[in-house]
Amino acid sequence: MKMSDIITAHILNMLEQSEYDTAEIQRNEFAALIGCVPSQINYVLSSRFTPEHGYVIESRRGGGGYIRISRVRLDKSSALMHIINSVGNELDSSTARILIENSRQAELISKEAAELMQAAISSPVLHEIPPIFKDSFRAAVVKQMLLALIN
Amino acid sequence: MKMSDIITAHILNMLEQSEYDTAEIQRNEFAALIGCVPSQINYVLSSRFTPEHGYVIESRRGGGGYIRISRVRLDKSSALMHIINSVGNELDSSTARILIENSRQAELISKEAAELMQAAISSPVLHEIPPIFKDSFRAAVVKQMLLALIN
DNA sequence: TAATCAAAGGTCAGTAAAAGTCAAATTTTG
DNA sequence: CAAAATTTGACTTTTACTGACCTTTGATTA
Fold this sequence. Notes:
Chain A has 151 residues and is mainly alpha-helical. Chain A has helices at residues 3-17, 27-34, 38-48, 75-86, 93-105, 111-120, 123-126, 134-150, and strands at 22-25, 55-60, 66-71.
């Protein structure tokens, strides 16, 4: 396996562990741990953790220096999160449909995702559960599916 | 026997062995093994493993580079329809999860679609409906969502 | 306080390791 | 024989890795 892939995997793993999508390393120490030359860390960061890839790098030199890698939430994510939060515990049929259409219009979700969401709350599915639960079910499905698109 | 046929046979054989219809080679190494010039691998790939023939090629240059050949199913729709038909009126949690994972592995559905499907039948959603309805609900959701991907 | 030192991280250019391209030469096929 | 397919290798581009040297920062010392 390539050194750069190993380094990438390590960082990704740290980000995964982290609650705030942030990993902090000390370059020399980290390089020694993995067994590569320090400058290779920079290579990996600049080739695979760029802003285009959705990451932000901050660092500090000198004693007690560090390199911090953060996964940034794209704007879409926060917009979606906003929508999710606006959905209460119940969601009726037409509001749900409009919400999905609007998200699609705003390009927050793909055409495929929109179709999948409509399918998940379509009549054949609702037919399987008692009427009393429909609105809370719709709310839960829509929220969970939008949430899946953020992660 | 022609060199290009030998190369083709080797690749086909690797695909045959592979569980997920994917073969990965290193061009120089593979060429040396077979006893041909490296660029001939490209010739074979571009003349016999094209998308029209049902294959997708991915590659990476540089140290540790590779060429990956994958056989893609052209007939995704009928494969999906087959799966839909195999689902009865009830679907338990782990069978559903495996079904989605397999569809994903077989590249019948996108990563996003797989995540959306898992989200649609995740615990927070199921929590909204009485236990007795869960299995029939799962079956309906999965079928409707896969159906949406066909249309 | 100013000068100095040590401990980080940053940069860059050079080398190596792949894969890609293309056109000329050769072989196969109809 | 003529056209199509195959083979080859010289040259290009991309990606990975390394080490020498540079800059920044914080601490210590005269």
